[in-house]
Design goal:
The chain is mainly alpha-helical. The chain has 15 helices and five strands.
Length: about 375
């Protein structure tokens, strides 16, 4: 089955954006809500221990003799290294080791019988969410699963440039997240299968709590629509004296603790995409991604992807705008240390697959570290 010619009109990616194979629920008093497919707790524990053990091996220098691994799943062990050397750069050994840890962890987790092994083994809701988050470029034959708050606006801008819908990445226009973009959800099953099998597939991930804080600060601090849609309900639900009969609520002063309480009561399969775990959005067990880039190494990893898909040499990933205020390590630590520790402890299981699969250490909020 050959790719369908691009003579279609973009249908848009409307509808609920949610789902999850790994649905870790918070235990509330004596009642326990069960997800449709929950990873066995023993396996979860084993993955966390394995990831921690590999990180310890890094510290001890025990992985220095490893051959250079591929970024993810291509089977070409020297591809990334060759690209870096062609650019006249020094190969980042620590980065290679982390990629190897990530690859091994994903292979271990996704090899379990309880995990989905292709898109069609997902539930209808899970598959719908995934397909609504995978963008297609037929000219350069790649699929990009976008994760909100991980530079996805710039990637969408780039896709529009590659398709000819936008002149260049620096054009000063308000970003439309649906027009002139082709989503996998708009294609027929046989067209989806062809692209999943033959196209280069990638996504970018970010430290889970940093991404969460970025979403909180942006949506509740700057976007009136989110303040009205989510903020008002959160304040009424979790703030004393702000019930149905209380004073008028604007929703523009939601605290981070109130936001976390809201997340604890949310079903991850139906979360808003801006705070839904990356695992739930992109299903790395159901889709064998060729590359998983990191927000922390955005420019370097984006450059690799662009060259890998054969983008014209003059096209570069957009430079961060001067007005953009990133979440710093210090800011994240301040917010996490300010949370009641029980809230953070209850929150982490919802994002544990993002931590373990994508090799991010759990946050350190011990008293000495928070005082520091």
């Amino acid at each position: 089955m050959l790719p369908r010619k691009q003579d279609y009109a973009m249908k848009g990616a409307n509808g609920p954006r949610s789902r999850s194979v790994m649905n870790f629920k918070t235990v509330k008093s004596s009642s326990v809500r069960h997800s449709s497919a929950v990873l066995p707790s023993v396996l979860t524990f084993a993955v966390i221990v394995a990831s921690g053990g590999l990180l310890l091996m890094i510290e001890k220098g025990m992985l220095n003799s490893l051959d250079t691994p591929p970024p993810r799943g291509t089977g070409q062990r020297s591809e990334y290294t060759a690209h870096v050397r062609q650019q006249g750069r020094v190969v980042d050994t620590d980065f290679q080791i982390l990629q190897e840890i990530r690859n091994r962890t994903i292979r271990t987790m996704c090899g379990q019988k309880s995990m989905p092994h292709d898109v069609w083994s997902l539930s209808p809701l899970q598959r719908k969410t995934l397909l609504q988050h995978v963008l297609v470029n037929d000219q350069h034959r790649f699929l990009y699963c976008y994760v909100p708050k991980v530079a996805c606006s710039n990637w969408k801008r780039l896709l529009k440039v590659l398709s000819g819908a936008l002149g260049n990445v620096d054009v000063k226009i308000k970003m439309d997240h649906h027009s002139d973009l082709l989503f996998l959800s708009s294609l027929k099953p046989e067209e989806i299968r062809y692209r999943l099998k033959h196209y280069f597939k990638f996504l970018f991930v970010r430290e889970p709590m940093e991404r969460l804080l970025s979403a909180y600060k942006n949506k509740f601090g700057e976007i009136e629509m989110y303040q009205k849609r989510y903020g008002v309900e959160i304040v009424k639900r979790y703030r004393k004296g702000q019930g149905a009969k209380g004073p008028a609520v604007k929703g523009d002063d939601v605290t981070f603790a109130e936001f976390v309480r809201y997340l604890l009561d949310e079903d991850v399969e139906r979360m808003n995409e801006h705070w839904m775990p990356a695992y739930n959005l992109c299903q790395p067990c159901a889709v064998s991604y060729d590359f998983i880039g990191s927000y922390e190494n955005l420019q370097r990893d984006a450059e690799y992807v662009l060259r890998r898909v054969g983008a014209p040499d003059h096209i570069r990933f957009p430079v961060r705008q001067p007005w953009y205020k990133p979440v710093t390590t210090e800011t994240l630590q301040y917010y996490l240390c300010s949370l009641p520790q029980k809230l953070l402890k209850d929150l982490l299981p919802k994002y544990i697959l993002d931590f373990s699969l994508f090799t991010y250490p759990l946050p350190n909020t011990t008293n000495p570290n928070c005082r520091h």
